[in-house]
Amino acid sequence: MSSYNATEVLVGGAVLACAIAFGVYASQSTGLSQSSGGYELGASFRSLEGVGVGTDVRLAGVKIGTVTGVDLNPETYRADTTFSISDGILVPDDSAIVISSEGLLGGNFVEVMPGGSPFYFEAGDQVEDTQGAVSLISLLVKFVAGNGSE
Q1: Is-contact 108 51, C-beta < 8 A?
Q2: Fewest 10 Å CB contacts: which of 37, 56, 58, 75?
Q3: What is the pLDDT of residues 48-57, one digit of tens each?
C-alpha cells in the first residue's frame, strides 16, 4: 500500500513542477513579468482600437517596450496611455507615436516613428504627436460608398 501512495506523491509532484514551469514561461513570454527596467512615457490618442495593457511598443519593427496603462480622460474624451521604453533606447523628443496594424487580420501595436531631434524624451514626458488607430471598417465603407465628387 505504501508504494502506491509514494507513486501518487511522485506523479503529483511532477505535475505540479510542470505546471509551475509552464506558468513562469507563460508570464515571461507574454511580458507580464515587470522585471525589465525602463522609463515611462505618456501619450493621448483619439482611438486605441486593438491596444491594451501589455501591447508591444515597437521601433523599426523591434519591440522596445510595452503599454503599461490605458485610461479614458473624461475631460478630453481621449485615451491617455502610458508605456515603458527599455533602458538604453533613447527616443528623440520630436518623435511620433502611431497605432499600427500587423496586417489585415493581425493585431495592433504602438509604433514609435523617430524624429531627428538631438534631444530625447525623459521619464514621465508626454508625447504630443500621436495618431490613433484607423478603423478598417470605416475605410471599407468610404471606399465602397465612393466620394461622389468624381
Answers
A1: yes
A2: 75
A3: 888 889 888 9
pLDDT in tens, 9-49: 888 888 888 888 887 777 666 655 554 578 999 999 888 88
CA-CA distance, 23 to 38, in Å (whole number)?
24
Grid coordinates representing 88 are: 538604453
Residues 45 and 81: beta-carbon distance below 8 Å: yes
Amino acid type, 41: L
Dist. CA 7–CA 4, nearest whole Å: 5
Whole-model pTM: value is 0.64
**Quick one: how many helices (H) and strands (E) in the chain?**
2, 8
